[in-house]
Design brief:
Shape: globular
CATH class: Alpha Beta
Number of helices: 5
CATH architecture: 3-Layer(aba) Sandwich
Radius of gyration: 15 Å
Helix content: 25-40%
Length: 159
């Protein structure tokens, strides 16, 4: 699928469903191949995706559909901030298939995710991106995200 095809075809942004899980795993494979901290694990990814799709109080996965194909996804997870005394969201995964990049699909997905977070009463969206992924950082900045003085730390609790 080339970029021109993506730009000319109708892209629909919809919530993901259980039947989308294999295609979502393929998109996550792309994402994790670009991230230093993660590796692809289809079984774990399928479990996590099913849990989010089956539990709307946990989060939301939105997908960009071109016909029968998924060409992008964004995942929000919900929690509560004691600093704000309100619900907030973590943008956990966002990826667009290579053939759809540069066509506006990513912007549409992110805008929809932001709108959904607002409708769910979220007061903030936080995301992590690789330190070296400057194109992603510029993309998020164009959509109003800014750098935080906070730094991420992680403790693995095993598998």
């Amino acid at each position: 699928m080339d970029q021109e095809t993506i730009m000319d075809a109708t892209i629909r942004i919809t919530p993901a469903n259980a039947a989308d899980i294999p295609a979502l795993c393929a998109l996550l494979d792309l994402l994790f191949s670009q991230e230093a901290d993660f590796r692809s694990d289809r079984e774990a990814q399928s479990r996590g995706l099913a849990r989010i799709i089956g539990s709307p109080e946990v989060g939301l996965i939105m997908v960009a559909r071109q016909g029968r194909h998924l060409v992008g996804m964004v995942n929000l997870l919900y929690t509560v901030s004691t600093a704000l005394g309100a619900r907030v969201a973590l943008l956990e995964d966002m990826v667009v298939a290579p053939g759809a990049r540069g066509s506006g699909v990513g912007s549409r997905l992110l805008e929809q995710a932001i709108q959904c977070a607002r409708l769910k009463g979220c007061r903030r969206i936080t995301l992590l991106t690789d330190r070296a992924n400057e194109p992603a950082q510029r993309f998020y900045q164009r959509h109003g995200f800014g750098f935080s003085a906070m730094i991420p730390l992680r403790l693995s609790l095993g598998e």
